[in-house]
Amino acid sequence: MQLYSKYIENDSFLSWIYNPTTETTKFWEDYVLKNPEEKELIETLKEILRGLKPEDLKLSEKEKEEIFNKLLNKIDSKKKSNKLFYLIKSTYKYAAILILVLIVANVFVNNNSKKTDAIFFNDISETPIDSFGKTNTQLIFGSGEPLLIDEKKSLIEYTKQGFVVLNEKDTISTDIKKEGKILLFNKLIVPFGKRSKIILSDGSVVHLNAGTKFIFPKRFTSNERTVFLSGEAFFEVTSNKEKPFIVKTIDDKVSVEVLGTKFNVSAYPIDSDILTVLTEGKVVVTENNIFKTQRAILKPGQLASWNKNTEKVNIKEVNTDNYTLWTSGLLHFESESIINIVRKIERFYNVEIIFENISDVKKINVSGKLDLNDKIEQTLENLTTTTEFKFEIINDKKYVLK
Known about the structure:
Blueprint: H1 2-8, H2 11-18, H3 22-34, H4 39-50, H5 61-76, H6 83-91, H7 93-109, H8 111-126, E1 137-140, E2 146-149, E3 153-158, E4 164-166, E5 170-172, H9 176-179, E6 185-190, E7 195-199, E8 205-208, E9 212-217, E10 225-236, E11 245-249, E12 254-258, E13 262-267, E14 273-280, E15 283-289, E16 292-298, E17 302-307, E18 313-317, H10 321-324, E19 330-337, H11 338-349, E20 352-355, H12 358-361, E21 365-371, H13 376-385, E22 391-395, E23 398-401
Parallel strand pairs: 3-7, 10-11, 20-23
Antiparallel strand pairs: 1-2, 1-6, 3-4, 4-5, 6-9, 7-8, 8-10, 9-10, 10-13, 11-12, 12-15, 13-14, 14-17, 15-16, 17-18, 19-21, 22-23
């Protein structure tokens, strides 16, 4: 099943087959060029799945079995020596038939949402933090026009009237006609060394940490308030029982749904875990996997950790200050790996910190609090007082702990 499940589980792949756009077509054409050994498999899946029209969803059991056998026969003709494949084929055939039909049904039922998600996941993944070669915070409107913000900490407010207020003084009006079909969605890129706070059109407040990309609607017009996140953010969501607030992370298998609450999500691409910490209200963390669905309901004071490798959710009680004080420029930690602490310092100050002996570092855990409003040298000095490390300045962007 691994031979093709990674494609039929992929919303972007299914959107490309049933509702191709310029963005999805370019992405998958580039993918095939980079992975020529998978071209035949992809073409086979395209051919069979495109034969499943919306009206085909009400097939008899016999017809479902014939379609799925066609899929298996085409794929396993090249895999006759694979015993595991035959075991999966014989054991899970009928379950897989149902799964495949449900996958296709889900594509059509959620057509517009899936297509939008695929575009935004690609967009947020491919946009570099320094896409303009500068260290400014970048607010990119639906028209593609960027607004560069110099301040280390910025405040952006989207009013109900459609205006954007920057740092409580500058009011900006975007050209609605120019924005066209993508009017609703804007993008905020916060580089390393900067932070930002944005007030969305519904009144919800989002604090964005350094090294974060955030896609959000200019106005919430659908039945859901959906945003996309790569990096870290603390959310203060305005309650609206009619419109749940959904955070979709850079790993599109994980989403967080709330009605009105306060919580922190850390979803940096480089980190092995996606962390959700609840300080007030209730949230549901969902793993959006077609073959299995994990839903974790959090209570205040709990952390849900989803590991990208094991794809499992672990819940535990925590001190929420360890995960939220960054919004005040403070770093609080209890028996945390010094590697994780240094990574956070690097993001906050936009510097590089090198360990002289990486093998010993992995075993060191540290507890304490750092004021990130201090200069980097003072922060490193404070860190080394709780460890046996000393730091050396290479230049204003590079430091060594030894």
